[in-house]
Write a structure and sequence with these properties.
Layout lengths: L6 H11 L4 H8 L3 H9 L9 H10 L9 H19 L3 H10 L10 H17 L7 H12 L7 H21 L3 H12 L4 H4 L2 H13 L3 H14 L6 H17 L3 H18 L2 H17 L3 H12 L2 H4 L1 H17 L3 H17 L7 H14 L5 H18 L2 H18 L2 H20 L5
């Protein structure tokens, strides 16, 4: 990936980009202007400056540690590979520190390949920190900056740059709850020519997540399973545990409950042994969901309550998710007063701490919909669910939430003996199921 420019041309480009004259450099280095000019033109004896001259010029240009010589560029490329390994193995703080050490490349008007990969790896880190809650816009700035000069990237590194570019775009749009765009970018990254990148576990998981929230569960489970197969003995247990939890959630919605329970029990065991609170709570919430589906509502509430312990203080996203799960179970149990208290608590948290919660707008829609699901005797609530909630979940996702609401409305219309409305909502359910199997008609 090294630039084809000569050393002298690199020095000249840096000087010009910083609007410095030969006289400026001569003053700071003690070298004559003619000597500096010959160095830039490659006319010095041996073609290159002495190590002392080069060090002095780089210092005067404000780039003392920048990789200019071929061996320095190779060393820099090696450190970029090391950052990728740190990211793959979940050692995010080490990766962040190393990226800061390599930021000197950003001062160079050339080496766009290295520049692009560093920015995209930094964006990847920002998307991974706090699950992308706090920094998606900061990550987007880096991604968009690379996008402005993609055509300038050397063909030798184009595949890798485009891979990280589209991978980050996939993660960004997932954080913004724009799953159709996320899927488009994820598939572009996955289908890149570099076969080594195709085996990327994280990429397959990202595509699975986009399919999952679009309600295409069988596609999602396929990619999650492929991600599991792509794991190696060097893959950290933490990442494998996270993937198991994600795959289990998918199995829950495809009604493969035994598979889901097995994976969640493994996740819970790992999380408990390592005191990983995030994975522990996630496993408890999903185990509660399995109990809910089986009609064991008291067991479901028990799992949810175990997951709540201490989460309001340390992880609001998990806490609010747990509230949402519990509300759905309380609706089934017809405990509407307790249900309304939790709905109000969830909405208060979301309105007060919106910036700390992943997909907060979609989560607020959950609680608004919960309120109306608990009040089906009210015609206004039925109108809201039919005209706001169901269209929202069909467009934004998850589609299986739209399907759940349709099933509740179908049960309600059966009790009301409203045959026409029952048939109408059944037709909507069929359309949603077709979308979940085959995607939307315009795709």
């Amino acid at each position: 990936m090294s630039s084809k420019l000569s050393l002298g041309e690199k020095l000249r480009q840096v000087r010009k980009s910083k609007e410095l004259s030969l006289a400026n450099i001569a003053y700071d280095t003690g070298l004559s202007e003619s000597t500096i000019g010959r160095i830039e033109r490659g006319e010095e004896v041996g073609g290159n400056p002495t190590p002392e001259q080069l060090a002095a010029i780089k210092k005067a240009l404000g780039i003392p540690d920048a990789p200019l010589l071929d061996y320095e560029v190779k060393t820099y490329e090696g450190r970029l590979c090391y950052i990728k390994e740190l990211i793959y193995t979940g050692r995010l703080q080490e990766a962040k520190t190393t990226i800061q050490d390599l930021a000197v490349i950003l001062d160079l008007p050339f080496e766009k390949d290295l520049f692009a990969i560093l920015l995209l790896l930094d964006a990847r880190l920002l998307m991974m920190e706090n699950d992308g809650v706090a920094f998606p816009e900061e990550a987007k700035k880096r991604i968009d900056k690379v996008g402005t000069y993609l055509t300038e990237i050397d063909h030798r590194s184009r595949d890798e740059v485009l891979y990280w570019f589209h991978f980050n775009k996939c993660s960004y749009y997932t954080a913004k709850v724009e799953y159709k765009k996320a899927l488009e970018h994820g598939l572009i990254a996955l289908n890149h020519e570099n076969t080594e990148l195709r085996a990327d576990m994280a990429m397959r998981r990202a595509i699975g997540i986009a399919y999952f929230f679009r309600g295409q569960l069988f596609h999602a489970s396929k990619y999650f399973e492929q991600a599991m197969s792509a794991a190696t003995r060097d893959t950290p247990s933490k990442i494998i545990s996270q993937l198991k939890s994600t795959l289990a959630t998918c199995y829950i919605y495809t009604n493969e409950l035994d598979k889901a329970q097995k994976l969640l029990e493994e996740t819970y065991s790992y999380a408990k042994s390592t005191n990983n609170i995030w994975h522990l709570v996630s496993a408890l919430l999903e185990l509660g969901k399995i109990s809910h589906i089986k009609g064991n509502y008291d067991d479901a509430l028990s799992f949810y309550d175990q997951g709540f312990l201490g989460q309001k203080e340390c992880n609001l996203s998990l806490y609010v998710s747990g509230l949402s799960y519990k509300v759905v179970t309380l609706i089934r149990m017809k405990q509407f007063d307790e249900c309304q208290k939790l709905i109000n608590e969830g909405k208060d948290i979301l309105n007060t701490h919106k910036e700390r919660i992943l997909a907060s707008d979609n989560m607020l829609m959950h609680f608004n919909s919960h309120h109306h699901r608990a009040n089906l005797k009210d015609r206004n609530s039925i109108d809201y669910l039919e005209n706001v909630s169901i269209p929202h979940y069909r467009k934004v996702g998850p589609k299986f939430v739209a399907l759940d609401i349709c099933q509740e409305l179908e049960e309600h219309y059966k009790k009301q003996r409203s045959k026409m409305k029952e048939l109408a909502i059944a037709a909507v359910m069929r359309d949603i199921l077709m979308e979940m199997m085959y995607g939307e008609a315009d795709e």
